[in-house]
């Protein structure tokens, strides 16, 4: 048996019987427009709001949660996903969280993401003095890991 005939047999096996003609529904079996719109509204219009479960979380709990997340990072995707989640909140992460993120970047050998951590800090803080305070507290780790700042890599900008 040729491969083409096997393909035809397989195609016939999965093809519905009414390929060219839709099944006819009698008028008595059709739903009225009112009933149909009520079904549609219940399926699509009244979905409940999904909550993340972290709405009453304190800053300390937030920091502990993300420290734990970064300690468990095993690849670049997890690292970047956790950084996106961490920086998505309306607060600046603590130094401990950033330390865990930088160590995770080193563990998965992702230098560009380590540089981007400092760019994220710079974007999140309210003024340059806060950014300098973060840089001072993270300076020993930054020197240990060999992470340069964007300002050092591109001084003209």
Descriptive account of the structure:
The structure is a single chain. 64% of the residues lie in helices and 0% in strands. The protein has eight helices and no strands. Helix 4 (76-88) packs parallel to helix 6 (111-124) and helix 5 packs antiparallel against helix 6 (111-124).
What is the strand and helix layout of this fold?
Layout: H1 3-14, H2 33-45, H3 59-71, H4 76-88, H5 95-107, H6 111-124, H7 128-145, H8 150-153
Helix pairs in contact: 3-5, 4-6, 5-6, 5-7
Portion in beta strands: under 5%
Main beta-sheet annotation: none
Number of helices: 8
* Shape category: extended
Helix content: 55-70%
Structural class: mainly alpha
Overall mean pLDDT? 79
Please tag this protein with its features:
mainly alpha, about 160 residues
Brief digest:
Helices cover 64% and strands 0% of the residues. It has helices at 3-14, 33-45, 59-71, 76-88, 95-107, 111-124, 128-145, 150-153.
């Amino acid at each position: 048996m040729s491969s083409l005939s096997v393909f035809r047999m397989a195609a016939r096996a999965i093809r519905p019987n009414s390929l060219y003609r839709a099944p006819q529904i009698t008028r008595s079996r059709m739903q009225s427009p009112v009933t149909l719109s009520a079904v549609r509204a219940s399926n699509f219009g009244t979905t409940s709001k999904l909550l993340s479960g972290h709405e009453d979380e304190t800053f300390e709990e937030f920091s502990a949660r993300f420290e734990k997340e970064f300690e468990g990072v095993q690849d670049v995707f997890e690292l970047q996903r956790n950084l996106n989640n961490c920086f998505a909140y309306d607060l600046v992460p603590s130094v401990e969280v950033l330390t865990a993120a930088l160590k995770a970047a080193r563990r998965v050998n992702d230098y560009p993401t380590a540089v981007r951590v400092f760019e994220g800090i710079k974007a999140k803080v309210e003024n340059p003095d806060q950014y300098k305070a973060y840089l001072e507290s993270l300076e020993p780790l930054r020197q240990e890991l060999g992470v340069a700042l964007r300002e050092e890599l591109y001084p003209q900008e």
